[in-house]
Model the fold of this input.
Amino acid sequence: MVIPGEDLIRRLEIESAAAHALLAPSLGTRLGILEARRREAEAMALWERSPFPGAVFRDGARSPSRTNTAWRELFGALELPETALASVAEVQRTSETIHVPEIDLSSGGALRYCAAVLRPLRGCLGAPEGVIAVCAATTDAVLAARQGVDATALLWTGEQRSGLVWFNQRWRSYTAADEGEPWQRAIHADDLARCVHAFQEALRLRVSMDVEARIVQSSGTYRWHRVRFSTEESGARWFGVATDHHDELVAETERAELISNAHAARDDAEQANRLKDQFLAAVSHELRAPMTTMLLWVKILRDETSDEATRAQALSAIQESATAQSRLVGDLLDVARGISGKLYVDLRTVDLARICTVAVAAISHVAVAKRVTLVISGCSYPADVQGDEARLRQVIDNLLSNAVKFTEADGTVTVALQRKGRRMCVDISDTGCGITPDFLPHIFEVFSQTEDVLTRERGGLGLGLAIVKQLVELHSGTVTGTSEGHGRGATFSVTLPASGASRAASPPVGVPLIPGLAGVRVLVVDDDPRVREALAHLLARAGAAVDAAGSSAEARERITAQAPSVIVCDIAMPGEDGYSFVRSLRGGGSGVPVIALTAHARDADAKRALAAGFDRHLAKPIDFDVLLASVHELLVARST
Done:
């Protein structure tokens, strides 16, 4: 039984007292018959407008003798059940007002519960003439209490035999459903089958069935509810209860997503750390291996019993190891520049066909040594693109180097250049080991390699493809890699915007002739005596007269003694660095060409060097032929 709240009981008492005042007969002799009837009519009109259902019962009748509008709308021509009649009889017997917290007025399959105050209706002389009943509908509260939910729950119930379905006021206001509209219409289409199944199982098994579903609001939006279907023990009546837990579910979902994201972030961080550790181990290996090679061959060279063939082998091994280390450092710097957004290209019209031809020629000796056939096509005519020649050469070199590296003996590497609309496309294909489908999406990622550091068959850090992607994208191009799987080879395709019209074929690629430096005086400025002495020796072999200085101050003394034709100068030196030194030269009016030869190899370092007054910026380690060419170019430019 649901006990009505004190506020409701107090209101019912007030309404019943007001009803008695309106309905109790007055003494017509004092007021006059006409006045009494007028007041009675006014009283009845007020009673009719009362929002609380009211009725008058006389002489134990099951049906009321008089009702107001609210009663008729709620109950119609209702006859009181036995339990209610007993309460009416008690009032008539005791002439006392009583509270009835729950009266079941259900009939014909329709549920009706109310709370009531029953008050004796007294006549003119105070004698009891009937019972005034003033009530309030409590069906929603009664069913909510019986289902163990509060008044905010959506409730609906139906009778198996009659098929009548009743909805509480909360359901009607929440869904704005039309009268007679089935409850299934309010369920989200994606959840309806699940709800209907739970409903049918509850009816069949006569048990409670719980399900989660979205129920539409009057605004048209859906919110998640916990829906429970149940039946009476007899199975004659079923109940549906829906409690809103949308906010809770959303919070749980968001919390689960946060936890999942946190776990994913932790896994990503752990994976990144593993990759970083593997990468650092690979860096260590790639640095130590050529160092070991060089140190061992140096020891052999110091052995006076070494013959000419051994010395030649030692020099070749040392050069290859030094070149490998230089390439490694360059790759590391390029990756760092790319990540920080400081990797730049100097775009101008260049011949992609010539770049491909030069790259193939450069790697041909490696391919011959491995018995790998190199095939080149489409490079007979110029293929102009807007690009940085050195960087595009780096792209093709990287892809070609990988293709040859991962192709076994008697395999083939093909370089095919063709024009596709307004773009030039270079396809570099090989018949090598191929790429597995699970690794293919990661081939352009930094730190990604298919083999373990300790067990891999081929060297390298796996940075080449990451650098290739960065450089190609800086050229507004694309690079893709495809493979049919392990052992099926791979193809890498680079596309770049084409530039200009066709022109005559480029001259054959050959080894450029670098003129000697006879009659040229070169001043070498470097605080490292090993670098200084090696440069002086090589420049002297090229025909130059060489002076050497270990500091900026010493360099000024050499310049005062005899002016050089060109200066090759380090930047990082104790006391006074190369920037300050070259600025002082330019401040004194000297126009002597100065080449910066430095380990500070970033693009920003090059810009700073040129801004300070250097004419060229060359990064250590340097190919000596490049240094010779730079010296020659500066001298020619100065003489014209």
